[in-house]
């Protein structure tokens, strides 16, 4: 065991630590002046004396500067001290204990594991094990395995027989292997309890103590907890030897600037829901998924839908990754589909929306993902896809973040069609004004119009419609897909309540039941059986009355009738015209 200094509790203000840290380095170095490069090195991972392979893996992951918890914890752990750390999830504590462990075991050739990390859940065990593997990716002789319930016991035995440096697992499965004699713990010289308060909440106190008592007496112990209840303090007092105490008192969370929403969605509808969201917001978007293969399949599906999209995952060479990010930054790419390789170190001002297509079971990963938007004081938005089985993880996530994540509805056909119409009108309006240096083009347009009118006897309205048709293209402009599956997700409570109220209304001029005080709902006896579409309704109303198309509200087309929200207080003449309105399909 390395000799240990006297415990010095540290209350660290995360928002001011960086400058204080640099100032201390300058004082200790007794240097009157330092170059900018030197100061940057003083505030980087270089200061810890990590080996070349570890620094290379950090560089590839995009890590530049350690977080406050890493700055405080890593030097203590490198000295071999026990450590009691209190820090909120998402502060980088996994790297804080993983990096010193990897550094110390760089030259380890023993078969039996040296380090045991205990976590409360198998999801976190997987995440921590993946982090170890990622940080040690450039080390040829470093191996990590995860053991937890719900998976094949025999496979775990097979892995434990091989050369292993770190074992990450849940208390129950660790005990099973120890009792079976399949996990040799004689050489364990470091124990990490991650999210210790969560393990206590889940009733693992007796299991934890049983495991600690079975481990060698001489070992380094590291305990991290987001909170510090009495039970955690008792464990620290009982088992930790003169520990360094670190507490991150405050940290400015960029997540406060991010609007966080979730969508309840079944797995087989996730891609369709994603496409609908991107109909509304599709510029500066990152979509996070778990696997490399999924990045490719989703990107391909979005490209077919007409989006400008690229892929970023672990198989992409570093030079190509940098090129992809640069294209995203310059606007040549609107959407990036990525694994968590892009969760850190990616700072692109254009990113306004982060979509968690796959649920990040670890809060730290979630925090880093959504942190790709809302950077440097800017606002951003994050959407999380949640299936039925993941609902309890959502609650745990909210508790960890101390933030309520609001539910979001999947955009229905009406919302998407309104968005398309709005974009089309804005594009036409933007292109209708010629600048001074466009006089040559303006003259060309006038010549074309004159030719169409004189030679082809076309009217202004026909020319305008033909021009719009060129913009819209051959495919249908309005979406008319079956949207019944949206209601099955238990998301559209408002729409369902509205629909119930509207179906009860059989009168022509009945007020709508949804909260839309500026409108009244009108019923027309034309529907899908008459091959009626939303454009038919808008066109018929505008051509027969003085109602402007932009003042028309919500439109719903059912099998035998349609419901249309029109402005309140229409005059009698307009109402009479609406009563006699004939809607033609074309």
Overview of the molecule:
The model is unreliable at about 1-40 and about 490-515 (pLDDT under 50). The protein is of the alpha/beta class. Helix 8 packs parallel to helix 10 (about 205-215). The chain folds into 4 domains: about 10-250, P-loop containing nucleotide triphosphate hydrolases (Rossmann fold), CATH 3.40.50.300; about 255-410, P-loop containing nucleotide triphosphate hydrolases (Rossmann fold), CATH 3.40.50.300; about 415-470, no CATH class; about 490-580, Alpha-Beta Plaits (2-Layer Sandwich). The chain has 23 helices and 19 strands. Strand 16 and strand 17 (about 520-525) form a beta hairpin. The strands form 3 sheets. An 8-stranded parallel sheet has the order 1-8-2-7-6-3-5-4, sandwiched between helices.
Main attributes of the structure:
586 residues, alpha/beta, Rossmann fold, 8-stranded parallel β-sheet, elongated, disordered N terminus
Give me the secondary-structure topology:
Blueprint: E1 10-13, H1 17-28, H2 36-42, H3 52-60, H4 68-78, E2 83-86, H5 93-104, E3 115-118, H6 122-135, E4 144-147, H7 153-160, E5 166-169, H8 171-180, E6 190-193, H9 196-201, H10 205-214, E7 220-225, H11 230-239, E8 244-250, E9 258-264, H12 270-280, E10 285-288, H13 292-304, E11 309-312, H14 318-330, E12 335-338, E13 353-356, H15 363-370, E14 380-386, H16 391-401, E15 406-407, H17 413-430, H18 439-454, H19 460-472, H20 484-488, H21 493-504, E16 509-510, E17 519-524, H22 534-544, E18 555-557, E19 562-567, H23 572-579
Parallel strand pairs: 1-8, 2-7, 2-8, 3-5, 3-6, 4-5, 6-7, 9-14, 9-15, 10-12, 10-13, 11-12, 13-14
Antiparallel strand pairs: 16-17, 17-19, 18-19
Helix pairs in contact: 4-5, 5-6, 8-10
